[in-house]
Design brief:
about 130 residues, mainly alpha, Helicase, Ruva Protein, domain 3
Length: about 130
Amino acid sequence: MNRMAGREVPSTRPILSVAELKEIRQAVNSVRLDDNIGMAIVNLVAATRDAAAVPGVNREDIAFGASPRATLALAQVSRARALAAGRNYVNQDDVKKSSFDVLRHRVLLSYEATPGGRGRGHHREIREYVFQQ
């Protein structure tokens, strides 16, 4: 509490140099994203805005779907996940495993969907629907 009240200033130290960070970003950007995987990402994000097309998802449960910028974020996070796994290409599992963390704050559930967590599984249903296509 004292730290948050401004009495104690925490010390920090860098863990990466600017050059190292640039190198990592270049490595992430060099990871291959196949056109089919790219379209799956586009379809996944678009499905959050048109959830009525997804079986098991009540359209009224989603107030706002993810914006097109979420597509870019999901592609980059999927690339980073593939790189961390030692691969130079993105696969469906990278997208699936990255999608919840990327989209959970970008998809806004309606007021009616939040009590009791009624809409909590919709992200998974949308993701599985897109990858079954």
